[in-house]
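Feature request, filed as a ticket because there's no other form

It would be nice if the structure record came with a short human-readable summary line next to the tokens. Right now we just get the raw output. Example of a typical job, pasted below so the devs can see what we mean:
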Amino acid sequence: MIHGLLGDSFSSLRMIWDELTVHREKVSWDRLVWHLGHVPKFSVIAWMAVLDRLPTKARLLSFGLHIDGMCEFCSNELESRDHLFFTCCFTKAVRAGVLRLCNLSRGALDWSEEFFWAYRQLKGRSLSSTLLRLV
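Raw output as currently delivered:
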């Protein structure tokens, strides 16, 4: 029965796939997220972070949810992507520790600058680039 629906050729499956998938332009930074050795769950979270689509309290509040928007880690600011990754005192300490383990010492910039740094620095297939992409 399925044979009759799909026909004999691979092109029939290809046509179905092409109809079901949304084709968009490939972004230049996809290898930062989707790379050899990536953990799919972490890559999805990283992709959402890049697109600023993480379910932070700031986003949930923007959808009309009635919640406390303060950061769970520090209770000092509204919980947003930028706050969680760069200005929260707790996550700053965690980030500094991870960078120390990677023999890097650098302060955090803002999201755009950090992303541009990673894009420039983590190209290629060297062991250090691969390990830093996993971090």
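Something like this underneath would help us a lot:
The longest helix spans residues 89-101.
The mean pLDDT is 80.
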